[in-house]
Amino acid sequence: MRRALVHMARRLRRDAQGVTALEFALAAPLLLMIMAVLIELGMSYYLQTVLVGTINAAGRASSMQSAQTTSSTIDSQVTARIHHVIPWATVAFNRENYTDFTNVGQPEDFTDTNKNGQYDLGECFNDANGNGVWDSDMGATGLGGANDVVVYTVTVSYAPLFGFSSMLGLPSTMHASSSTIMRNQPFATQTTRTVTKIC
Fold first, then answer.
1. Residue 110 near residue 125 (C-beta atoms within 8 A)
2. Which residues is 149 bridged to in the sheet?
3. Where are the alpha helices (DSSP H) in the chain?
4. Burial (CB count <10 Å: 0-12, 13-18, 19+), residue 111
5. 113 vs 187: which has the higher pLDDT
6. Is residue 49 left, alpha or beta, with left meaning phi > 0 and alpha meaning psi from -120 to 50?
7. In the prediction, which pLDDT does 94 show?
8. What angle do CA 57, 85, 39 make, to 5 degrees?
9. Helix (H), strand (E) counts: the chain
10. What are the residue ranges spanned by the domains of the chain?
11. pLDDT tens-place string over residues 98-139
């Protein structure tokens, strides 16, 4: 009996049948996770590429005063292009206009009474965009008028394709954003903005 058990143990030790299936069962989950991450990252890169090309074309179309296309129509076209890539994505739009390129992203001027280098409540400021409060970005909301500089930003948010992506270090909501800066066509005289000093 003992001799038979020893013989069976030796035979089992040399038997390689089923090893491939076992190795595949151990390696498959890791390979599938790596593939999922690569697909997510590839989709994110492709979306960013589509987004940049789309908003550059949309920005040019929206800057033409002679164009018959409205902002809402342009936004709908951008959304349609994004939904070709990721149908469940949420697309948000923002337009800020400025009198000049040098004003883009600049804060409204203020009197730094306490000399601390930042705006504090109660300090006087020049309200460049007419909203009655000091802003760290003096841009006015909307498309603006003739010869105004417009920053057109599109932000896309979407849930990852694979639900377990967050376990692999990817965020639970993916984001892509891109902006383009255009000057509206000067088919009219640029409107002079009234800057009000508020204290």
1. yes
2. 98, 183
3. 2-14, 19-63, 71-85
4. exposed
5. 113
6. alpha
7. 93
8. 130
9. 3, 6
10. 2-198
11. 999 999 999 999 888 888 988 988 888 899 888 889 999 999
**93 φ, ψ (degrees, to nearest 5):** -125, 150
One-letter amino acid at 46 equals: Y
Give the pair of three-digit tokens for residue 189.
Answer: 């005289």
Q: Tokens 């469940």 map to which residue?
A: 88
Nearest 10 degrees: Cα torsion 163, 165, 168, 170: -140
- 78 exposure class (CB count in 10 Å sphere: 0-12, 13-18, 19+): buried
- For residue 142 the two structure tokens come to 């909307």
pLDDT in tens, 49-99: 999 999 888 877 777 655 556 788 888 989 999 999 999 999 999 999 999
Token digits of residue 63: 């800057």
